[in-house]
Write a structure and sequence with these properties.
Layout: H1 9-28, H2 33-40, H3 44-47, H4 49-61, H5 65-71, H6 74-94, H7 98-126, H8 132-160, H9 165-184, H10 198-221, H11 226-248, H12 262-292, H13 297-325, H14 327-345, H15 354-368, H16 372-381, H17 388-433, H18 439-472, H19 485-496
């Protein structure tokens, strides 16, 4: 798809809606897991596969999207992805048993994995560099607002309807998008002579799949489990072999030489750190609100809603500001706000008010809205157009892996520190009372220890954000001014060597 004077707004609109509902579905199920577990009669570890499996398929599929985007047309890819997603949604809504529901989620994920890299690539090729900020701001609205609003919508639906309604609500929207795409997407593309390297695909599955499964299982099974460290070792070996293989291929499945571009490499490093830190609020706040404070799922979701709305409002504005001022100013301001609010989250207690939580979370999301898309767009802007599919696939893959690593790290810190604080509080109670703690006191100690463990995790998260803040100071604005076509050609030749 070539850059045109007038961007294809119709195509972009359809892709945005498809990407929105696919991302919404990623977090929509989280609050419903206990209901599904009870109705279908499965264990907690088994029902978690509905989210773990979805994430795994995404992590395995996304690295292949660079090849798919180069090989096939936007129309063909989007129709295939949307058909898979719609089929999975319909089957999930009527699934009679857990196995069918899990298979439906896998089908959903295989379609959803293609949509985000495809949308990002269309935006990059449809707008000149000096206007990409505004376009990517809209993309940021989809990328962050959809998952953020998922728990609120899910909490309301679960409170009033059966969990199947989560799929029934999405089904008609998916059908409408599929029909519109069939009639309105007219994108044509010349046949590209590029073949998928089967060994690369196998190594990618073992590499990214092993890492994602290992780290996502660590919080539940513990780092001492063979299942955890065994799959992480397999993942590391698979990833090393996969990267080595890509450097040997003339047309690699995923191009790692794009890290030769310094701003792309820097933006990737910052994004990894931010994604790890971002998961602190998404994981730890629901634990604190529901487990430690006993607040209902609906109220938990409503607590996150103002932050999601602020993020939605700010994303397009941030895009325009990026076009005017560049990424560094926005990133430094946004990370400073995010760092301060994350540190304030490390001071939670059993008496922190609901209003304080809303204000803090909303302020944190305001800071976050100024960070992710400007950093990512600045890095992608340095890549020549032919490497856009590889850049978008790499960004999405790194987000999946760093999200899993961040989750595992923060949950482990929380678990270990909760145990530590429980022992310390029990010793303190014994020294004061000189008798065995009562059941009520033990419960109080457990809740207080959990809060302290969550606080320690937020503290680690705030340190990660400081690291990202320091890295962001080295960002430089990437522009097209002063770069001739000859210089671009020289860069491409240097890149190929």
């Amino acid at each position: 798809m070539q850059t045109t004077k007038k961007p294809p707004y119709g195509i972009i609109g359809i892709l945005l809606i498809g990407a929105f509902i696919s991302l919404l579905n990623e977090t929509l199920l989280n609050i419903a897991l206990p209901s599904i577990k009870n109705e279908l009669g499965v264990t907690t570890s088994t029902v978690q596969w509905l989210t773990t499996g979805y994430m795994l398929v995404n992590g395995i599929m996304i690295p292949t999207t660079a090849f798919l985007i180069q090989r096939y047309s936007v129309r063909g890819l989007f129709l295939t992805a949307m058909a898979l997603f719609t089929t999975g949604t319909v089957v999930a809504g009527v699934a009679p048993e857990f196995g069918v529901l899990l298979a439906a989620r896998v089908i959903q994920a295989s379609g959803a994995a293609i949509m985000m890299p495809l949308l990002m690539n269309v935006l990059l090729t449809s707008f000149p560099i000096e206007k990409r900020g505004g376009a990517m701001g809209i993309f940021g609205l989809v990328m962050i607002f959809a998952p953020a609003i998922g728990p609120t919508l899910s909490g309301w639906l679960i409170e009033h309807y059966d969990w199947r309604m989560l799929f029934h609500v999405v089904t008609p929207i998916a059908f409408v998008v599929l029909v519109l795409a069939f009639f309105l997407l007219k994108d044509q593309k010349e046949k590209v002579d590029i073949q998928l390297d089967k060994l690369s695909l196998i190594l990618s599955v073992f590499g990214f799949g092993g890492l994602l499964y290992g780290f996502s299982s660590a919080g539940d099974k513990g780092w001492g489990s063979l299942e955890v460290y065994g799959t992480i070792i397999v993942g590391v070996i698979g990833l090393v072999l996969f990267i080595t293989r890509q450097f040997k291929l003339e047309k690699p499945m995923l191009e790692f030489r794009i890290f030769k571009y310094p701003m792309f490499a820097l933006s990737s490093a910052i994004s990894i750190v931010i994604t790890m830190a971002l998961f602190s609020a998404m994981l730890l706040l629901p634990m604190y609100v529901q487990s430690a404070r006993g607040i209902s799922p609906l109220d938990s979701g409503l607590l996150l809603l103002p932050g999601a709305l602020v993020m939605g409002i700010m994303s397009p504005i941030t895009g325009k500001l990026f076009d005017k001022f560049g990424a560094r100013v926005l990133a430094v301001i946004g990370l400073a706000i995010t760092g301060v609010t994350t540190y304030m989250f490390s001071q939670l207690s059993l008496t922190t008010t609901y209003t304080e939580l809303i204000i803090l979370y909303t302020a944190r999301m305001f800071g976050m809205s100024m960070v992710m898309m400007p950093i990512m767009t600045n890095g992608l802007n340095q890549l020549p157009q032919q490497f856009n599919p590889h850049g978008t696939a790499m960004n999405n893959t790194l987000q999946q892996v760093s999200g899993a690593i961040g989750s595992a790290l923060l949950v482990t810190v929380m678990s270990n520190r909760t145990e530590f604080h429980a022992e310390e509080l029990a010793k303190e109670a014994m020294s004061n009372g000189a008798v065995a703690p009562t059941a009520d006191l033990q419960q109080q100690i457990g809740l207080q220890a959990m809060v302290e463990g969550i606080n320690d995790s937020f503290l680690i998260s705030s340190i990660l954000i400081v690291v990202a803040l320091v890295l962001s100071l080295f960002m430089k604005r990437v522009t097209v001014s002063g770069v001739t076509q000859d210089q671009q050609a020289v860069k491409r030749e240097q890149f190929a060597k």
